[in-house]
Design goal:
170 residues; alpha+beta; Protein Transport Mog1p, Chain A; seven-stranded antiparallel β-sheet; three-stranded antiparallel β-sheet; 4 helices; 45% strand; globular
Length: 170
């Protein structure tokens, strides 16, 4: 079992994120603060935002891109990793194949990212999964799903959203 409380590289790579896609349509964007986490992020005004069961979900107007953010206590990351397959199935994903892994900093926060392909409702999608160390006690899990044929169109916007994730210092 990987112990993520110690911030191991294996743990962060295990969850990684899909620094993958989206095109920011307007210069202005809505800001959102995620409850229970000292972070904020921006997304295009025309995107929809829902808050299902303690997480945040963003969808582009054409429903070609979905990004889900979920805050997890650092002490619970091992359990979240163990439940990753169920989480992906809960999002409707199957046949997941990882093609790349990356570690990077996002606004000074360590991030472990994985990207690949999967199937959603019988259609191919590009998938990104990741974890960002937002504080010593909290991690932000990310799931980015982009319809295969729309990935190039949305690449810049998705990257803008992911790179907008920033710490809020009190």
């Amino acid at each position: 079992m990987i112990d993520c409380r110690k911030g191991s590289i294996a743990c962060r790579v295990m969850l990684g994120l899909a620094a993958m896609f989206v095109q920011l349509g307007s210069a202005s964007a809505a800001d959102v603060n995620l409850a229970r986490a000292p972070i904020a992020l921006s997304y295009p005004d025309q995107w929809s935002k829902t808050d299902p069961a303690g997480s945040l979900r963003l969808d582009d107007p054409a429903r070609e891109v979905m990004i889900v953010f979920e805050v997890v206590q650092a002490s619970a990351v091992d359990a979240a990793l163990g439940n990753l397959q169920n989480k992906l199935k809960g999002l409707g994903l199957g046949q997941v194949a990882v093609s790349s892994e990356e570690e990077r900093l996002i606004n000074g926060m360590k991030a472990a990212l994985k990207s690949g392909k999967a199937m959603l409702d019988g259609q191919p999608v590009q998938l990104g999964v990741g974890i960002i160390d937002v504080s010593a006690q909290q991690r932000l899990m990310l799931f980015t799903i982009v319809k295969d044929g729309a990935a190039a169109k949305h690449k810049d916007t998705v990257l803008e959203i992911l790179e907008s994730i920033r710490p809020i210092r009190g």
